[in-house]
Amino acid sequence: MKTACILTLKLAGLAVVYLCWRLAARSTFPFFWSVALVWGGVALVPLLAAIGRWLLDRRPTPERAMLLTIPIHYLEMILLGCVLIVAFRFTQAHPIARIPFPRAISVPIMQLLGVLATLTVLNLAIRGLGLPFATALSRKLATNWLYARCRNPMLLSTLLFFIAGAVWLQSLHAVLWAIPWLSPAWILYVRLYEERELELRFGESYLRYKAQTPFFF
Known about the structure:
Layout: H1 2-26, H2 31-58, H3 62-93, H4 103-127, H5 153-168, H6 172-202, H7 204-212
Helix pairs in contact: 1-3, 2-3, 2-6, 3-6, 4-5, 5-6
């Protein structure tokens, strides 16, 4: 019964995420609301992490961490997905200034980072028996291959991909948004919530891995 409820919650969450992303993709927002979504939406990500961390610490058990992570992850997916969709269109329309970086270079960089991000997903699926976000929480701690020298290779490759995408857009606005705004917010989310959630679910084994393996480098 419990397994069926969790599966239903996950499927419902995926449906809501899809509908929110589709609405963001099909909607045209005025300038003010575009700015509010692009910049304010990212600011909500660390706030979500702080609320999730507070709820975790109120009852720090593996079962609590597993259940709470489902809505927290889906809310993060809605926030970041909608923000990225709106940001892609908005920074094209309002680049502030063009960065004359050749797209012939930025495109293969994005392709390489896309392949690397895909490999991190496969790494997690094979070694951790899980998938990104709450679709399938890892049942084992992935510490091999790409996770051997970096605790967050998926986050690192994804952030670098978005930064490369901002350069591909040749938009100073996109670069200023991706590097000093989106990246710190996403990193803070992982540090505040995801690392605590992993500590609760995997205990001493994760603490040892965390002590021996750097966050990025």
